[in-house]
Amino acid sequence: MTWSEGYWDIINELYWVPSYLGLKSIPKRHWTVEGNMVCVPKSMTNPSGPLYRRVRSGDDYEAFIRRQEETFNHILNLTLSILPGEVVAEIFGPVANFSVPGDLKVLGKSISNRYSWIAGANATTPDAFLLSESCIFAIEIKFNAKTSLDQLAKYVALIAGEEIQNGKRDFVNLLFVYPLKANEKFISQTNINPVDIGPRYFDMLSDSVGNARVKSLYLSEQESIRDTLSRLNVRCITWQDLYGQIISFMEKLGESNGDKTLFRLLSGLASEILFHPLSCVDEKA
Questions:
Q1: Around Cβ 258, how many Cβ atoms within 10 Å?
Q2: Gyration radius of the chain's alpha carbons
Q3: What is the distance between the alpha carbons of residues 129 and 109, in angstroms, rounded to a whole number?
Q4: Residue 175: helix, strand or coil by DSSP?
Q5: What pLDDT was estimated at residue 120?
């Protein structure tokens, strides 16, 4: 059993015991049934929100929840948060074909409060956003969702915003991970070759932005964003590429307690990549 199975056990328990989420059931003794209609006391409802009901069986729910990008993203960010930043760099740097140096640390949910231009709003939510003294490294994961220019523009704004507020980095990197044909998918969905991204795409990205705060940054910090674009490395890889790199790193680990811990941690992430129903990873490839 990998540690990630423990995560799914927690999710499963939350599903079956919704009181842990602050949700309370309305017992049948409080129902008033008239024909095919059910009425419940107004005092037992949430005046500012909807009523909820369980719509999936146990097996159906597990299959459903394991397909979601959001839950996989939890596991990815937990792994990245625990791994030493140098190990993150060693795993991702070669497979993504760019530099990811330094003690990278995951920024997490603090993004909305970190930047004055976001000011606590829900302007952009990266899948993973890591920082070191010399590097910014953002990751966007894909299973069946498409890549849009608006999404790309938000990542550029976030990376540029970090440099505007906290100083330029030597390396600024953005990685997209797809199930298959990574470069082809990115190009077909954005009409941009990732290796060609630079200042000449500023207007295209600015015009595609829908969020008001992101748009405001593009309008007020044009020179800074163009500078970030001139140095931004964008790469696209497959889940197979990342899975293979993780396995290669694990095979080099020794028998020390530290290496055993790394092995267990990475085993959880590798297992989730391999068995995700949309990753298209072949263990024997």
A1: 10
A2: 22
A3: 10
A4: strand
A5: 65
In the chain, domain spans: 3-14+29-66, 69-241
Amino acid at 193: N
> Residue 202: what pLDDT?
98
Our measurement of the distance from residue 156's CA atom to the centroid of its chain's CA atoms, rounded to an integer in Å, reads 15
Which of 62-85 are b and which e, b meaning 16 or more Cβ less than 10 Å from the residue's Cβ?
eeebbeebebbbebbbbbbeebeb
Half-sphere exposure of 103 (CA within 13 A, CB side): 2
Distance from C-alpha of 10 to C-alpha of 59, rounded to nearest angstrom: 15
Instruction: Sheet containing 135-141: give its strands across.
Output: 105-106, 128-131, 135-141, 171-178, 232-238
Token readout for 186 is 């990115």
**pLDDT tens-digit readout, 124-171:** 889 999 999 999 999 999 999 999 999 999 999 999 999 999 999 999
Residue 216, helix vs strand vs coil: helix
Task: Collect the ranges in the chain with pLDDT lower than 50.
Answer: none
Burial class (CB in 10 A: 0-12, 13-18, 19+), 184: exposed
Report strand pairing: 171-178 vs 232-238.
parallel
Residue 249 to residue 90: CA distance in whole angstroms: 8
Residue 112: what pLDDT? 74
